[in-house]
């Protein structure tokens, strides 16, 4: 059996930042990061636009309190305000810390870190590295893992969280290269496994974003918080769904309908293209519904709108948002200097996740905590985003709460001993599970069932939702879950068997999908990214509270917990 003081599942920003903090705090601790891809290929590397912080390099009037208010208002008042205060107060410090690690932020002419405008923010506070910010940060963090001697298990798939007697004791993992199984025991386990965008059929998320950490937690009896809040990014490149960063609008691009109008004037006149993402996504969807979308031949009534950069000029486009230009040119053959981009909303981010307190310790319910279990980043819900995340707050959350959770873990493990685990029991169960998948005489291909699941979620739990549609979706989902018993695997070998990994990922997706739909059906209001056409108003009296969903094969049990309101009283959200 392998053993470490701390095992971190997930090699993106939150996991790497936590690992660095633990190693910095106590170099004697044995810290390991396990990831199903190499850490450099984690989805954090795709984050483009930037990271918000009140450095005051561009706007001397900005304050952390203003950043906190923008974040809470953007969240439609569902964010926990104590957590938001930590996020926004610590933001400048973590930016400087990253810079000292070697992150190459874009600069002002005098050498200070540049800051740009971003949707929902009242000041220019988003620090960036052109439009490849996640890439710039993650590379330096992974370099620091090596510097501090953190052990990296890359291309291992974690099959199970070992949680016994209300204590996380370790994980069971499968080496993709050769099918070798290992149990790892640890004094603390941290999940930083990212989001679940692949539950839907059009997403900006990579193929690895299948919600494995959330599903494993749910199977171990941990509730999932606020899973109904799924963010649609307004500008997914049509038809591929690849993200065109909000940085493009931050630098001055326009959204245009088939009539040539900058239609955001009708939805958020004070912010225009820089309204929060939920509002902008619904505006684009409404324009398309009303027949003011555009066809590829330029005629009206089509499935997308234009994102027009042409007035920005070649020099600004190629220096400030080169990656967005490159993606559009590579995937669609469109030169954004000469012609507008084609965009429509795409599933982008999960506001919900594994419930944690502000030290990253996982909650067992409205009051209790799970011993030895921590989480941070997109997989977690400390609820700094509430019902809708503001752009450039996600990288910030990963780094602030990755650092904070790492510091808490470093203290937590000091006087603890390694737990006892019956290793053979877990290995035997896993071998049996793998054999049973290999022996399954099914008739359904994994990719066919996965596509049906993604189509189901997109059709029944999209930008606009109603009770009748979601009930249909749950019935459809139940049928699809039963079909999981009828999948078959062509590859029954041990070497690089990606098919068995896809089978496990599909199980994760079905669990996460069921939790999302059930939580959404029971929230009878519209708030942030959760928009109910049958309950079009926000209902603070009945639903100013967080959803906690407990999964079991028999169904999902819902509980609720209050929102922490410490600074700003909820009021109507207007832009």
From TrEMBL:
Among Pfam families, the record links this protein to:
FAD_binding_2, Succ_DH_flav_C
Fetch the InterPro entries from UniProt: FAD-dep_OxRdtase_2_FAD-bd, FAD/NAD-bd_sf, FRD_SDH_FAD_BS, Fum_R/Succ_DH_flav-like_C_sf, Fum_Rdtase/Succ_DH_flav-like_C, SdhA/FrdA/AprA, Succ_DH/fumarate_Rdtase_cat_sf, Succ_Dhase_FrdA_Gneg
Catalytic reaction equation(s): a quinone + succinate = fumarate + a quinol
Membrane spanning residue stretches: none
Q: Name one GO biological process term.
A: anaerobic respiration
The record places domain Fumarate reductase/succinate dehydrogenase flavoprotein-like C-terminal at 450-575
Q: Which UniProt keywords apply?
A: Electron transport, FAD, Flavoprotein, Membrane, Oxidoreductase, Transport
What GO terms are given for molecular function? electron transfer activity; flavin adenine dinucleotide binding; steroid dehydrogenase activity, acting on the CH-CH group of donors; succinate dehydrogenase (quinone) activity
Q: Where is the active site?
A: 277 (proton acceptor)
Named in its record, the pathway it takes part in is: Carbohydrate metabolism; tricarboxylic acid cycle; fumarate from succinate (bacterial route): step 1/1
Its chief place of residence is membrane
Per the record, its GO cellular-component terms are: plasma membrane
Membrane protein topology class: Peripheral membrane protein
Location in the cell: Membrane
Enzyme Commission number(s)? 1.3.5.1
Return the similarity comment. Answer: Belongs to the FAD-dependent oxidoreductase 2 family. FRD/SDH subfamily.
What is the protein name for this chain? Succinate dehydrogenase flavoprotein subunit
Instruction: Report the source organism.
Output: Aerosakkonema funiforme FACHB-1375
